[in-house]
Amino acid sequence: MERVSHWPASTRDSAELLVTELFDIIDERRWNELGALFAEECTYCRPGYDPLVGLSQLDRFYRTERNIASGRHQVEQIVSDLGTVTCWGRFVGTSRTGQHLDEEFIDVYRVRDGKIAFRKTYFYRPAI
Predict the structure, then answer these.
(1) Digit-coded pLDDT (tens) for 10-19
(2) Which of these, 17, 35, 115, 122, has the minimum number of CB atoms within 10 Å of its CB?
(3) Contacts of 28 (CB under 8 A, 6+ apart)
(4) Was domain 2-123 assigned CATH 3.10.450.50?
(5) Residues 26 and 105: beta-carbon distance below 8 Å
(6) 0.85 surpassed by pTM
């Protein structure tokens, strides 16, 4: 995985670790650990859903609403600068109905005080 950043090396490493740990928590379904990475007043914007505002809505989304039963995020690159982190890669897994999933994604994050305050996910699909 290649990194591109204007942050000092220790901050770049922190941004990379934050994203890597986030996907480990999600892929391993360790929902109780979301608060270690997300700010209490976080916002998550994801296609097909109203914005999830606050850690409790985010937790509920992952536990009960997300259409994914299992899978793995494969991050190709992480880019960070001035409190913003972007990553892209692919998710491969299975939906709750047993459908095979293989989806490219991009995530954009705003980090404040070492935690994710904002996250927005984009998928590669025709939209307009």
Answers:
(1) 555 687 889 9
(2) 17
(3) none
(4) yes
(5) no
(6) yes
